[in-house]
Amino acid sequence: MKNIILDIELLSKSYGPIKALNEVSFSLSEGEYASLLGPNGAGKTTLFQILTGLFVSDKGNALINNFNMRNQAINALAHIGVVFQQITLDMDLTVMENLKFHSNLHGINDKEFNKRVIVELEQVNLSDRINDKVRALSGGQKRRVELARSLLHKPKLLLLDEPTVGLDPQSRRNLLDYIIKLKEERKMAVLWATHLVDEAEKADTVIILDKGKIIKKDTPENITKEYNKDTLHDAFVSLTS
Amino acid sequence: MQIKHASLALRGLTYRETVKFFHQKGRLLSAFVRPALWLFVFAAGVGSVTGVDPGLNHPYPIQNVNYFEYIIPGLIGMVLLFSGMQSSLSMVYDREMGVMRLLLTAPLPRWYLLTAKLLSGTFLSVLQAYVFLIICLPIINLMVNFSTPIIGWLYILPATILFGMMLGALGLLISVYIKQLENFAGTMNFVIFPMFFISSALYPLWRLKDNGAEFVWWIANINPFTYGVELVRWASLGQVYIPGLIVTLICTILFLSFATIGYDPQKGMRKNGGGKPS
């Protein structure tokens, strides 16, 4: 039996009369890569904000490695690596300085940091850019720095909020391949929010979120079959239209 | 929270603030030029040979204090005020650029993260105050004699740190309410100028009463900036101004506490913590 890394129970969040999340429940085990698929405004970002402690849910619980975000957020946050939709790098600092800032916030000492930074940057092919200002990097490279950064503190859960926005097809492909490698090699649970169906095809699980509610959670193959469609894309369109 | 983790986070924040500060040459220069202009131009124009009468309650050994000497604690306050507001601006900037999320998703208590941010900002504030003193004091001392002993500028260090923390904490609190970078200039007009002008930074407060501006005198007396300036003024002559110490201490704690509440997603006024809802 695999360990449950993320456990969401009846999570709800409203903005005034708008229900951004309506009793959302699902769980993710170690080594499971789930794609959170939903049209724009489905509530994906709100869910991510709650999972990262930037928002508080109105009702329900989110447990990360058994720590509840509601009252054990600090312990929970230590197990999360996150890549936000918006670039969150300091453009005026170098790649190294950005990564070190993150490490300091996560309490990683210098010796350990120096070891990990080499490994993580090598994995994303950016070792030669370590002393460059982030401003000088391309969009794809910035994303890779963010990915390397999100892994420095060895999280058990990786959250990716539409990480391919603004990337060219090649960079998107590479990112996707790297995530699959991560979940296989490091047994991380990965939750990747996207509105692009082709990104969800390689996931172990597809969670379809629409208007704040989960309308489907299954493997991509089963969803495609269940709706008698040729592709996941067609099934998704018929589900959310 | 482990002490080692906490100190690493403080170091990380201080390093980032310092590196960014030294990257911005304009900020570095204006931190020094602004008070220097006030000292060399304003004080030269307003001061008189007979000096200024600081009133009844003052730490100076003489009743007629040289105006250059009188306004230095006020100008230190000005450096700290601008620097504190600059930290506030950097919080707003970080929020717009998304870096704030990194800070707020760190596995540390919010109150500590904000305190660490405050300490790192205060470090820069005090540094700027001393750069101003080290450059300007020898020049002024060539022209006039001060009753403040040289060591007095060392005595002011704890007072300057506390005063800097109070203004930095105020900056953090203001940053809770400024939603966009564009609103920053307007807010500053309502904070920096009244706080600086309606205080004992540029003139002794008895003058306000003497000139019939009793209402302004009252405001100056409840302005925490006045207490910070006086704390530094008294410290420069080796004395502790107790009301100043109490007010700056209480204000620092209050401003920081309200800022922490403001950044807390459970209780905060800014419920969306670091970004827009989808």
Index terms:
heterodimer, A: 241 residues, alpha/beta, Rossmann fold, 6-stranded mixed beta sheet, 4-stranded antiparallel beta sheet, 9 helices, 10 strands, 37% helix, 27% strand, B: 278 residues, mainly alpha, 11 helices, disordered C terminus
Q: How does this model look, in words?
A:
The complex is a heterodimer of chains A (241) and B (278). By secondary structure, chain A is an alpha/beta fold. Chain A has 9 helices and 10 strands. In chain A, the strands form 2 sheets. A 6-stranded mixed sheet of chain A has the order 6-7-8-3-9-10, sandwiched between helices. In chain A, helix 4 (110-123) crosses helix 5 (139-151) and helix 8 (220-226) packs across helix 9 (232-240). Chain A is globular, with a radius of gyration of 18 Å. With 278 residues, chain B is an all-alpha fold. Chain B has helices at 3-23, 25-46, 67-97, 99-104, 110-143, 152-177, 184-197, 206-210, 214-222, 224-236, 242-263. The radius of gyration of chain B is 19 Å and the shape is globular. Mean pLDDT of chain B is 89; it is low at 269-278. Chain A binds chain B through residues 15, 20, 40-46, 49, 52-56, 74-75, 77-78, 80, 82, 84, 86-93, 97, 100-109, and chain B through 1-2, 4-6, 8-9, 11-13, 15-16, 19-20, 23, 97-99, 101-109, 265-266, 271-275, 277-278.
List the helices and strands and how they pair.
The complex is a heterodimer of chains A (241) and B (278).
Chain A: E1 4-15, E2 18-29, E3 33-37, H1 44-51, E4 59-64, E5 67-68, H2 73-77, E6 80-83, H3 95-105, H4 110-123, H5 139-151, E7 157-161, H6 169-186, E8 189-194, H7 197-200, E9 205-210, E10 213-218, H8 220-226, H9 232-240
Parallel strand pairs in A: 3-8, 3-9, 6-7, 7-8
Antiparallel strand pairs in A: 1-2, 1-4, 4-5, 9-10
Helix pairs in contact in A: 4-5, 8-9
Chain B: H1 3-23, H2 25-46, H3 67-97, H4 99-104, H5 110-143, H6 152-177, H7 184-197, H8 206-210, H9 214-222, H10 224-236, H11 242-263
Helix pairs in contact in B: 1-5, 2-3, 2-5, 3-5, 3-6, 3-7, 3-10, 5-6, 5-11, 6-10, 6-11, 10-11
